[in-house]
Write the structure tokens for this entry.
Amino acid sequence: MPKPHTEYFLELGIQIHAPSSIPIKVQINDGDEMVTKEKSRPLCRISYKKATGNQGLSEGTSGFKNFYICISNDKGLVVGVVVSAQLPATSYLRISIVEKVVGSPLLF
């Protein structure tokens, strides 16, 4: 389970460059749809949804977009959440786990 404030780098549409203890293959839809891909390890999945309006991190950086990210287990319980992340023009998504919530409903 990722610890709060652990940072990851997501290469758009390819994979998360994370420690080998949490390998994951994902695809992000650069639209308003949520995309979910199972982790290579069971009992956990990660979901992405593009944030709307001014939600999430403060805007003002050209080429950045906001996303909501949730990590949930097989029972649908949230085991980790990123309230927002920025997608720069380099097509890398820098993700910071800013809060850990167990047993909460999905945020989106």
Remarks:
- Confidence is low (pLDDT under 50) at residues 1-67, 79-108.
- The longest strand covers residues 78-86.
- The chain has one domain: 7-96.
